[in-house]
Write a structure and sequence with these properties.
The protein is an alpha/beta fold. Strand 48 and strand 49 (952-959) form a beta hairpin. The protein has a 23-stranded parallel beta sheet, with no helix packed on it. A 7-stranded mixed beta sheet has the order 1-4-6-5-9-7-8. It has a 7-stranded antiparallel beta sheet with strand order 13-12-11-10-16-15-14. The protein is globular. Helix content is 15%, strand content 21%. The protein is built from 26 helices and 68 strands.
Length: 1427
């Protein structure tokens, strides 16, 4: 590991002032290497520094942090000297701990113009090892304490024996880092300070001080009369009281206490900045306080107003990082409720927990999340306590003194390590609520038999494997028992005696395969979801609610018939028929039998006079029984069945029906809305997507006057009756996608409340008249046949999204575009250039994606799609779902592709570079990732690393609930793993092991159901960013990939998703169809889908057959190329006219985006359509090498080709270079000529570079050709410290592989991989990528490698005839040993050929010796020297 290889974001070492350096001259040294001597025991300071010996392995560096271009700015290279770096590299257990000063506010990063002018506080870099303790570090730096802050949250004082560097290493290991070298590197990264940060002193938080304690010396007057005079006194506002000292600046005299709860605080208008404080009651006292400044006045008024507004004497000091209580708080003797949650309270000290009994009236005490370790026995002396919360304190035992709290009513001991309770606890006769969840109990404690007042037992998340119902007989007072998440395997009810007292039983998320509760005869509510139940028997005497979803039930036995049952959930089971007792339930209101095997519904059920909600989707129903009488049914879900018709009397018998979903059936018609012309229908939402309906159904929809939502997509509608649509005046959302509509009736303008119109994938030619609607928000007319748009003079201000993509014939005028400029989201197809077309067709895959907001106000789903990652035949696709936040998905969309490009250079192991990509992205979220998070999925298509030219594979990594599916031979192959607590048992166990509180809705701390996310770092270690990684080889049997978020695959199964995409050729239209189906199936949340179409050949090659295009102009003049040697300049290549010009996708992007400022050559304009260069893979290399056309066995290559000359040169300064060296120990790169402060390199962006194998025993003559043109092999991104040799007009340049990677990260070269945005992210060029846009942005980049103006280079294509081939190679051999210097002598050559030249640049690889008449074989890797 090399510390100099860290990213630019690595923290800069800062220095203190000169006085501070003198003060700590022994511990804080300058960066001069001669001040450190290597010693087995550590570092020894010498050389004029007093000869003081440092503690073992410790060294403190202090720098003065300056910002933005200052000459004193410390970069990541000058932070450490060479000896310091050598010391770090010699052992991975050594590292650097960053200590921040006390005034650093972690929530306010220095940025902007003000930050650049304001000096930052001290930052000390302490070089130490994992065995270095806090005590040793404090001795070294003459300090007292160190503090640690996790996720920008609470601050904790470190114990003297704790080891800071080991804490960082452990934290990184818990995140998922496994490589010790990488852990050492990440530990020194400045971005890590948002996750874990150390302070040399406790930071000052003004807001915390204001809410905890306010004090000062002000003018005070007692009483409302003028008898008392104004006097300066010390005034304190703490807790619930105002404290006024009797002596100025002293607390030794009498203290006047004024209780404020229920009192008053008022402004005194006769005096400036004066407040009147009054206590409550008939004996109220009053004090006037005159403040000096407006700031003090407002601060005191704000805090005092909160106190007087309280109805109880409550002091809330939660989340303040307190170690002890403020001593003034003890003056508030009226405190009854004290909240100290989320602190680090100590037992000892002036304000420690031992002094809590001083609050004589205290009734409620919350000490949860304080890392106590032991039960504080002192609280057992507060005899008035009625409520005590000691959750999440790592407690192992409860003392016997707990029996003293005879008034205790509520005791919370959740999230500890308790396995038993003392017998004395049974003496608490008033205890009614006892929380024991997420402990280590393996049985129900026997002491509960004596706690007669306890009616609810919360024991979720323990280790109770077997529940004996007979044991509950002795606990006749228990009515509610919660045994969720216990790993429960059996419930024994052998005793014939019934259990009468138990009414509520929660057995969710256990391992039960059968359950018999007939002995619990008074059971009212049973929750047994997510078990493995095959048999369920319940007593029905008092049963009201039964939830048994996600099991394997084929039948359910309830006896007697549950006459009180109102809710029954049997979804996600194996029911083939409904039990008879269900139809006999007279009070049933909700029945959910979704996802079963039902083939019919009983007629008695549908004619129930109590049933209001029936969910029967995803079954095998072929018919629905007729309704015989009026029923109160309000919601009916029949989607995903085999229905060909609905009951004729449905709408005039179910007059209360408001929601009907009959999507994904075989309906050919719908029933009438009423028996006569006047309809009484109250239907509001009607979903009919994916049926066989025709335009005849339009007349039958008219009677539903209250219809608000109508989805009739993917049917067989040729038109929609205009007169019928005008009668749906209350319509708000209309989806007509996937039909054969040629127009939308103009009567749609009558739907004044319409806000969403979705009609993509039709044959619409005329833009509908919808832009006059006052509430229109979203219009989707993509993938139609629109040709023009007739617009009103102004658009409605409510319009937020307009999608017109996929309309190939649509032509928009500038006036129309200007009118659309205010729309928040406007989606259009931009006319892509030849370069864009060339780039898209050069990859064996294409993609499309769709994002739909649903009924949410914001879109929290983002998609990453890069069809060509870098310059190799690789791709990257991702989807990110932030659930309720949009910030984290956007950040991941902008950064994750770049991070992956960097990580694949450092490792060839898929699990390593994909895991590091996720972990690095997690770190880069910064403060946004502290409280917010997102599910993420990333797909990386690449060649196998072991065979750079070998078979293609897809590596998928994910956290959270985003999923990926591969279609192989028409069948879905899941590639991801859902990391939610409900779906992943091992994750549930891991979270339970860390004592997280999982709420009843299966969310960690009530926040998220996911156990792995990017972000949400404050939930660590329960929620971690380590991803699931899986690699799947690709073959010709693989058709496409589908990526989607949770809401997509909750509604659309894997098999349906595959069948849906198979029926649609265009991946973009397929993605839209998936989202539309999910919406029609009931999803109202954000939906995201990505479809990647694959075209993999039998051998996974990425070649495509050559395309021959006839040039319309005259044939090109044969080229005559000469090479003229020069003593000091590189060889000059000149070409005659007649070369056809074309913008290649990669070439033009890099050329126009480069800061060199080069312009396209226009001396040979194209006279016709330029042919696109064929795509070749490394399995089948081309016979053309770097612009040198080598004859194949069959003669000369006669493929059509073009060449666009775009020379550029660059000069970069060492100030901008990233060569990994200090200013005092730089060594010149081998083969590079440096003239002092600047390093000059001339680069022609068409020249190719080759990566040579090091240490190869074979001759260079046996090297195989691996790549040609602009395609990069897969392996080159994952190799380090390789030597790249670039030929620049005859001059060879050696650059190490790391420098190539750094060049790729340079702002000036980022356009090679995509458009560089101002936030540092790179957006990959798509079909609509505008090359001019890249060129326009190039001048904005002010730093980078290429800053010199462009210089014209000669033409650079060389064509060698067969007769001179050997001679040219001999000439090139003379150059192979010289890396830089005068160019070699070349021989003029010429060649006349009737064909066009291959579109490759002139680059020469030394020692090329192809076999006679065969393709030259050279094992090399190609790099585009546009970098």
């Amino acid at each position: 590991m090399a510390m100099e290889d860290q990213p630019d974001s690595t923290v800069a070492a800062t220095a203190a002032t000169a006085a501070a350096e003198k003060r700590e001259s022994g511990a804080c040294i300058d960066r001069q290497p001669d001040t450190v001597l290597h010693h087995p025991s550590g570092l020894i300071h010498a050389g004029g520094r007093g000869g003081r010996t440092a503690a073992a392995g410790i060294r403190v560096l202090k720098r003065n942090m300056k910002r933005n271009g200052s000459r004193g700015c410390m970069t990541r290279k000058t932070r450490f000297g060479s000896r310091e770096r050598d010391w770090l590299k010699s052992d991975t257990q050594r590292g650097c701990v960053c200590l921040y000063g006390a005034t650093v506010d972690p929530q306010l990063p220095a940025s902007g113009p003000q930050a650049s002018s304001t000096p930052q506080p001290d930052l000390q870099l302490v070089l130490c090892s994992t065995s270095t303790t806090v005590e040793e570090m404090c001795v070294q730096r003459d300090g007292q304490d160190l503090y640690v802050q996790l996720h920008g949250d609470l601050l904790r004082r470190l114990e003297p024996t704790e080891r800071p560097l080991q804490m960082v290493y452990d934290y990184l290991a818990a995140m998922g880092y496994a490589d010790p070298v990488r852990v050492q590197q990440e530990a020194a990264n400045s971005d890590l300070s948002c996750l874990i940060r150390f302070y040399s002193e406790r930071p000052v938080n003004a807001d915390q001080q204001e809410r905890t304690l306010l004090k000062g010396v002000f003018s005070v007057r007692k009483g409302k009369t003028q008898l008392h005079k104004w006097a300066e006194r010390q005034v304190i506002l703490c807790g619930t009281c105002l404290i006024v000292a009797s002596v100025k600046d002293s607390l030794t005299g009498k203290m006047h206490i004024l209780p404020l709860v229920g009192g008053k605080v008022e402004e005194v208008k006769r005096r400036q900045h004066c407040l009147m404080f009054s206590s409550a009651g008939s004996q109220a006292q009053t004090y006037f306080v005159n403040f000096d400044t407006l700031t003090d006045y407002q601060r005191w008024h704000r805090q005092a107003s909160k106190v007087v507004a309280q109805t109880v004497s409550l002091v809330d000091l939660s989340c303040y990082s307190l170690e002890e209580l403020p001593e003034y708080l003890f003056y508030s003797q009226d405190v009854t409720h004290l909240n100290l949650r989320h602190n680090f309270m100590n037992l000892l000290g002036p304000g420690g927990l031992l002094h809590l009994p001083r609050f004589s009236q205290l009734k409620s005490l919350n000490l949860s999340h304080n890392r106590l370790g032991v039960f504080p026995e002192c609280v057992c002396e507060i005899l008035n306590l009625t409520e005590l919360n000691l959750s999440c304190n790592n407690l192992h035992t409860v003392p016997v003194q707990i029996g003293n709290l005879q008034s205790l009513q509520t005791l919370s001991l959740d999230g500890n390590h308790l396995s038993s309770l003392p017998a004395e606890l049974g003496g608490l006769s008033q205890l009614s609520s006892l929380g024991l969840s997420f402990n280590d109990f393996n049985h129900i404690p026997a002491v509960l038999q004596r706690l007669s007042a306890v009616d609810k037992l919360s024991m979720a998340g323990n280790q109770v494997v077997c529940l004996e119902v007979c044991a509950l007989l002795s606990m006749g007072h228990l009515k509610h028992i919660d045994l969720r998440l216990n790993g429960l395997r059996c419930v024994k009810s052998e005793s014939p005696e019934p259990v009468n007292q138990l009414t509520h039983l929660d057995l969710r998320d256990n391992c039960l395969d059968s359950l018999d509760l007939t002995s619990v005869c008074n059971l009212e509510t049973l929750n047994c979801q997510r078990n493995q139940l095959r048999a369920l028997t319940v007593s029905g005497f008092t049963l009201r609610m039964l939830h048994a979803s996600y099991n394997r039930l084929s039948t359910v036995s309830v006896y007697p018939v549950p006459s009180q049952l109102t809710h029954l959930d049997l979804s996600q089971n194996l029911l083939e028929y409904l039990p008879d007792w269900v139809c006999d339930c007279r009070k049933i209101e909700m029945l959910d039998v979704t996802d079963n095997l039902l083939s019919e519904l009983p007629s008695r059920l549908l004619n129930s006079l109590s049933l209001r909600k029936l969910l029967a989707g995803n079954n095998h129903l072929q018919r629905v029984p007729d309704l015989l009488d009026h029923v109160p049914l309000e919601v009916l879900d029949l989607q995903h069945n085999k229905l060909s018709e609905l009951p004729e009397s449905l709408f005039f018998k179910a007059l209360n029906l408001k929601h009907l979903n009959a999507s994904s059936n075989a309906l050919e018609s719908i029933p009438p809305s009423g028996q006569s012309d006047e309809s009484l229908s109250t239907l509001q939402e009607f979903y009919l997507t994916r049926n066989k309906l025709t335009e005849d159904c339009g007349a039958l929809l008219v009677g539903h006057h209250n219809l608000r939502v109508l989805h009739i997509a993917y049917n067989q509608l040729l038109s929609f009756p205009a007169s019928k649509l005008s009668k749906l005046e209350l319509l708000e959302e209309l989806n007509l996608s996937g039909n054969q509509l040629k127009s939308i009736p103009s009567t749609v303008s009558s739907c004044k409340r319409l806000h969403t119109l979705i009609a993509h994938s039709n044959h619409i030619t005329v833009f509908p008249e919808i832009l006059n609607l006052p509430e229109i928000k979203l219009v989707d007319l993509s993938y139609n046949q629109l040709t023009e748009i007739q617009l009103p003079d102004s658009l409605p201000p409510t319009l937020q999204e307009l999608d017109l993509t996929g309309n190939s014939s649509l032509m928009l005028e500038h006036k129309t575009l200007n009118l659309f400029s205010h729309i928040t989201t406007l989606k259009l197809d931009q006319k892509s250039s030849t370069a864009g077309d060339s780039q898209n067709t050069s990859t064996p895959w294409s993609h499309g994606y769709s994002e739909m907001r649903g009924q949410r106000n914001k879109l929290c789903v983002s998609v990453l799609a890069i069809d060509r990652l870098g310059d190799s035949v690789e791709a990257c696709y991702g989807i990110f779902d932030g659930d309720r936040n949009e910030e984290v998905p956007r950040l991941l969309q902008c950064t994750m592709g770049d991070v992956l490009s960097e990580e694949v250079q450092h490792s060839s192991i898929d699990s390593v570079y994909m895991s590091n990509t996720f972990l690095t992205s997690h770190r880069k979220l910064g403060m946004a990732g502290q409280k917010l998070g997102a599910s993420a999925l990333l797909c990386y298509i690449h060649h196998e690393s072991s065979e750079p030219g070998g078979y293609l594979s897809v590596t998928v990594a994910n956290v959270g609930t985003c999923q990926a599916v591969l279609c192989r031979d028409g069948r879905p192959v899941p590639l991801s793993k859902v990391y939610s607590l409900e779906n992943c048992t091992e994750e549930m166990e891991r979270v339970k092991l860390h004592k997280a509180i999982i709420t009843e809705d299966n969310k960690v701390s009530g926040v998220t159901c996911c156990s792995r996310l990017l972000g949400c770092s404050y939930l660590s270690p329960w929620v971690i960013p380590k991803p699931w990684v899986h690699t799947e080889p690709l073959s010709s049997h693989d058709d496409f990939l589908i990526l989607g978020n949770r809401t997509l695959f909750e509604r659309v199964s894997y098999q349906e998703a595959v069948c849906t995409v198979q029926a649609v050729q265009d991946p973009r239209a397929a993605a839209k169809k998936l989202c539309s189906l999910a919406q029609s199936y009931g999803c109202k949340d954000n939906i995201g889908a990505v479809v990647v179409a694959l075209k993999i050949a039998e051998d996974s090659c990425t070649c495509e057959p050559p395309v021959y295009t006839e040039l319309r102009g005259p044939p090109p003049v044969p080229l005559s190329v000469s090479m003229t040697p020069a003593p000091s300049d590189t060889a000059t290549l000149s070409s005659t006219s007649g070369v056809v010009s074309e913008f290649n996708s990669e070439t033009s992007a890099s050329e126009l985006g480069s800061e060199a400022g080069s312009t396209a050559s226009d001396e040979h304009p194209s006279s016709g359509a330029a042919p696109r260069p064929e795509r070749r893979c490394s399995l089948h290399p081309s016979t053309t090498l770097c612009g040198i056309i080598v004859p194949a066995s069959g003669g000369l290559v006669n493929h059509m080709g073009v060449f666009q000359r775009q020379p550029s040169s660059a000069t970069f300064s060492s100030n901008h270079s990233d060569n990994g060296l200090d200013s005092d120990d730089e060594t010149p790169l081998e083969g590079v000529i440096s003239n002092g402060s600047k390093l000059e390199v001339e680069v022609d962006i068409h020249c190719c570079a080759f990566q040579l194998r090091s240490g190869s025993s074979e001759s260079n003559k046996d090297l195989d050709l691996e790549k040609r043109g602009y395609d990069y092999p897969n392996g080159k991104m994952r190799r380090q410290n390789s030597v790249v040799v670039s030929t620049t007009n005859g001059c060879l340049l050696a650059v190490c592989g790391r420098e190539i990677a750094d060049l790729k990260k340079s702002p000036s070269t980022s356009s090679l991989f995509g458009k560089k945005l101002s936030n540092g992210s790179v957006v990959a060029p798509e079909d609509s990528h505008n090359l001019i846009e890249v060129a326009l942005e190039a001048p904005k980049k002010k730093s980078g490698y290429f800053t010199a103006p462009a210089q014209q280079d000669p033409e650079d294509q060389l064509i060698v005839p067969p007769c001179l081939e050997q001679e040219v190679r001999e000439q090139l051999k003379g150059q192979s040993t010289a890396v830089s210097g005068p160019s070699a002598t070349s021989t003029p050559t010429s060649l006349k050929d009737s064909g066009c030249d291959q579109p490759h640049s002139a680059s020469f690889a030394p020692n090329m010796v192809p076999g006679p008449g065969a393709t030259p074989i050279i094992k090399q890797e190609v790099y585009d020297t546009a970098l």
